[in-house]
Model the fold of this input.
Amino acid sequence: MTAARATRSQTNGVGIGLRLGAAAALGASAAIHFHLWDSGYRHIPTIGPLFLLQAMAAAALALAVLSVPRAWSGWAGLAGAGFLVSTVAGLVLSAQVGLFGFKDSYSAPWAKASLAVEIVGAVLGLALGGPILKAHLSKTGGNRRGPKEEQR
Done:
């Protein structure tokens, strides 16, 4: 199954719903991080600029998920999912051990909402990119080495 053929199924309501849901989660993550940056995180060295960068990148990915041609929507979904997973990892790392000299907390404003939005968004992005992953795995037989290395 090719990636182009795999994305044909996304012309239905499910594919459109996945795109809208993933974009909404990315947009919500952008809004949360921009709000936190604006309400005081901007004064935290290193973390402040990263919050602003996260907000801009999440907004750009939300637009990409919505606006790329259907054949590329799975790739945009996977990019968004990877980004949201890295954002969750940043919060978990910051809350557990600290990050760049700053220790956050799960009880901080918007932390739980951010985690919920980002986890849901990552799942939706993975579902959007699922046909691409399935096509790749079926082409390689689930083997990470790929078909050329298998023949040796």
The helical segments are 3-7, 13-38, 47-67, 70-96, 111-140, 146-150. Residues 3-150 form one domain. The chain is about 75% helix and 0% strand.
